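TA notes, week 10

Several of you asked for a full example with nothing omitted. So below is the full record: structure tokens for the whole chain, then the designed sequence directly under it. When grading your own attempts, check the secondary structure regions first.
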């Protein structure tokens, strides 16, 4: 009688952003017979808006990779702590990419232990991103995450020192790639070959790499005693004005942003929205009521008649205010 020998497949944890590189890294591992478990990290600084497409790039990637288990992890307070005091500093914006990779990989390492996986793989390409994807930064990331030797970068592995999974023969190093630099030609050719047809255009990183958003975030940190990740969604919408006395006014740019500001109303803040005219929703953090109404008038297309009515919410109380005698110079309850 012939008994089939049960071969235990090596498990590995992969970081999946939903972009082409991480999808291809996962595909290369699956094709080598590795039992792949994926993790997707979410932060409030993610720039993707699934509402626009109706589906996220992560679910599209998972669909193309087959039935791969996916763990979604939302970054919390330790991420914010890191963001305020990054050991390796910021990139061009407020992006602490090296520290961000370290914290993500530490969490991936915990998951690896939890499920009894043997190594971690990521879709990084040598020389693709200035801050975190060069060899020196990769060494720091591997060391500080406590996973040195156990982080495989399948797309560039042939250019890097062999890792434990390669040395132990869990992975065939000859089937790994030597991609480098910012060009995506190699990845696009590989995607075609592997039947990966649906992937997003290259993204420049999260919102923290954006100059304007970074300025807004810096200002937020400078004026906020107890920063919280819960405040970040508000930084993504509207026109923001910091007044000399430190008060903050946010003016919605369209109806959707207006609805969002209304949904974010907190009784400590002041919220203004038009009752009988067409104009923007305005949020005020502070006490400068007149300035907030001035901003509302500034972004209202027509000059408003005296007595125009404004909905006003504060301290859990909803009232109607009437625009005063002088344009922009006061409101009456
Ligand atoms: S771009 Fe943003 S999410 Fe990506 S590594 Fe840098 S800080 Fe982290």
């Amino acid at each position: 009688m012939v008994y089939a020998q049960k071969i235990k497949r090596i498990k590995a944890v992969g970081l999946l952003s939903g972009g082409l590189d991480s999808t291809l890294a996962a595909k290369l591992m699956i094709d080598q017979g590795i039992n792949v478990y994926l993790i997707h990290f979410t932060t409030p600084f993610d720039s993707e808006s699934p509402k626009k497409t109706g589906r996220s790039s992560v679910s599209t990637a998972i669909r193309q990779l087959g039935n791969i288990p996916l763990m979604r992890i939302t970054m919390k307070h330790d991420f914010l702590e890191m963001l305020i005091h990054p050991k390796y500093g910021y990139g061009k914006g407020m992006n602490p990419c090296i520290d961000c990779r370290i914290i993500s990989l530490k969490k991936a390492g915990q998951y690896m232990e939890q499920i009894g996986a043997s190594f971690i793989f990521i879709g990084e390409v040598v020389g693709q991103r200035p801050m975190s994807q060069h060899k020196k930064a990769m060494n720091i990331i591997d060391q500080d995450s406590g996973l040195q030797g156990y982080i495989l970068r399948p797309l560039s592995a042939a250019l890097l020192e062999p890792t434990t999974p390669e040395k132990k023969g869990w992975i065939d190093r000859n089937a790994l790639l030597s991609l480098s630099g910012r060009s995506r030609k190699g990845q696009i050719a590989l995607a075609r070959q592997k039947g990966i047809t649906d992937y997003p255009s290259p993204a420049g990183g999260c919102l923290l790499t954006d100059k304007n958003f970074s300025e807004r975030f810096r200002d937020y940190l400078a004026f906020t005693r107890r920063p919280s990740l819960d405040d970040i969604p508000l930084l993504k919408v509207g026109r923001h004005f910091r007044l000399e006395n430190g008060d903050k006014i946010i003016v919605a740019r369209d109806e959707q942003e207006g609805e969002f500001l209304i949904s974010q109303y907190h009784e400590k803040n002041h919220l203004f929205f038009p009752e009988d005219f067409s104009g923007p929703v305005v949020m005020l953090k502070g006490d400068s009521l007149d300035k907030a109404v001035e901003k509302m008038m500034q972004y209202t297309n027509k000059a408003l008649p005296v007595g125009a009515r404004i909905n006003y919410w504060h301290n859990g109380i909803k009232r109607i205010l009437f625009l005063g005698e002088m344009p922009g110079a006061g409101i009456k309850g």
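The chain is about 35% helix and 15% strand. Use that as a sanity check on your answer.
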